[in-house]
Specification:
This protein has 281 residues and is mainly α. The protein is built from 12 helices and 5 strands. Helix 2 packs across helix 3 and helix 7 packs across helix 9.
């Protein structure tokens, strides 16, 4: 028994096999790979886009490095042609499907449960997006109809929300878009909205539309009315001509001429001055 213990103590110690995973995690490249895996797991379980600042706090690394690692992950997914990509949306990072696979995803998600916005809702949403903050009255003045129902629908779906109140009389509620709106459209910020000038037609197109939509009043002329008018006019004209002809034609009936008689007044003879008024005896 003593010999066995002596032989065991004299035996050379067996070196433990090195842990490859531990060695790799302690190297700089290993730590970066671990951080990238952590980013993937956090973004995968997150419901909303995860800001880079929050990832930096969770990983205890600078925000600049987080942004760099996220961009490297995004490029690797595109290069490997995965069905998903990592994108910066609405101020944060999230996973979403690749653009070229949209038809398959729509076929899966929208089958028998399509819930699209109406034309009025899309118009109102566009007005709020480009004119925000905007009040209910201002939306109504632009669209020409009462937008209360549409605004409630957009607010219920989370596309718009109250962002403040107007300083004018009544302090009207002002509406603006939300992060959900940016997320649904795939925009990082409102600055990524397409310029509204691209959707405004040129002056020539507006003029052509005005000419095409202009209503020209048509005056209907009744044939019966014209015939009656022409007949009445012709009869009146003929009557006038007949009357004029009758007045100018010589009459066969003799009428005594009226001779003007001149009234002669008797002369008044002045008495002779030599003749006395009374005879003398």
């Amino acid at each position: 028994m003593t010999d066995e213990l002596t032989n065991a103590s004299d035996a050379e110690p067996i070196d433990a096999e090195p842990d490859d995973d531990a060695a790799e995690s302690t190297s700089p490249n290993g730590r970066i790979a671990e951080y990238k895996r952590a980013i993937e797991s956090i973004v995968l379980v997150a419901h909303d886009p995860v800001p880079a600042e929050l990832l930096a706090q969770l990983l205890e690394e600078p925000t600049v490095m987080i942004e760099q690692w996220c961009e490297e992950l995004a490029e690797s997914y595109i290069a490997a042609r995965h069905g998903f990509v990592l994108v910066n949306i609405a101020g944060g990072w999230r996973f979403q499907t690749a653009d070229d696979l949209t038809p398959y995803v729509e076929r899966f998600l929208l089958h028998d449960q399509r819930a699209r916005l109406s034309g009025a809702a899309l118009e109102t949403l566009a007005i709020v997006a480009y004119k925000q903050p905007i009040s209910r009255g201002q939306v109504a003045s632009i669209r020409g109809v009462d937008p209360d129902g549409v605004l409630r629908t957009l607010q219920a779906r989370g596309y718009i929300d109250e962002v403040g109140r107007d300083n004018g009389p009544g302090q009207a509620i002002l509406f603006g878009t939300t992060a959900t709106f940016l997320e649904k459209l795939g925009l990082a910020s409102l600055d990524d909205l397409p310029p509204i000038a691209e959707f405004i037609p040129s002056a020539e197109v507006v003029e052509a539309l005005e000419i095409g939509l202009r209503v020209t009043p048509l005056i209907e002329v009744s044939t019966a009315g014209n015939s009656a008018g022409n007949s009445a006019g012709n009869s009146a004209g003929n009557s006038a001509v007949t009357a004029q002809s009758d007045s100018e034609a010589p009459s066969d009936t003799w009428a005594p001429e009226t001779v003007a008689t001149e009234t002669v007044a008797p002369e008044t003879v002045a008495p002779d001055a030599a003749t006395p008024d009374t005879e003398s005896p």
